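Sample intake sheet
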Amino acid sequence: MRIVITSGPSYEPLDQVRRLSNFSTGELGTLLAEGFAEAGHSVVCFRGVASTFAPPLWPVEVIPFTTNDDLAAGLQSLPAREEATIVFHAAALCDFKIREIVDEKGIAVRGDKISSRAGRLTLSLEPVPKLIASLRRMFPASILVGWKYELDGPADAVMAKGRKQMDDCLTDACVLNGHAYGSGYGVVSRSGEQVHLPDKAALCRFLIDWAERTPTALATPGEQSFHALSSFTSLSPFI
């Protein structure tokens, strides 16, 4: 199988020396990439340049990215994109970008490096489009797995958001985690099945096992793949 994984954080620049980012380390995507490679599959890992976890080992093909737009461009230009069997979108992308920076008088502040002598500054942020919403157009015949990381609310609400992501973005499964979900990781599928994994290692083993147990049709992307999880073998026996 040909596996594509996005991993680690993106960033959005404030100026040429400062940036807006998040705390993602790239660990989970790296472990998943190494696990699939060790199992004998062809793996391409798009890795945020700000990742602090050690990069995947050879033979994983690592492609660095910076901003959300840079990752989108990299995925769009990926050679033989139509041959991707499964895409795991585990990267932690920025939800906002800088719209404007103004000083106390409301005057726009610009420059390669904004001086600290400019005084108090106000940053205006604007939301950016979700990359996951465009993955189906890029990979129309691939299985798509998204992530939903939530800190607030009950676990049931996180599961509902995971299912909504599948409906809104036309993905096939979603991995759930974060304080709101609780310890460990959950996986929900388009067909309504759900499983729980206690840690990163168990999650990676499960996803690799699940991918290898799916029908032969999955290994050759085709028209069946988008609605695949509704007809695949139940996830539960693989735990």
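Comment: Residues 215-239 have pLDDT under 50 and may be disordered. The helical segments are 27-38, 68-76, 135-138, 155-169, 200-213, 216-219.
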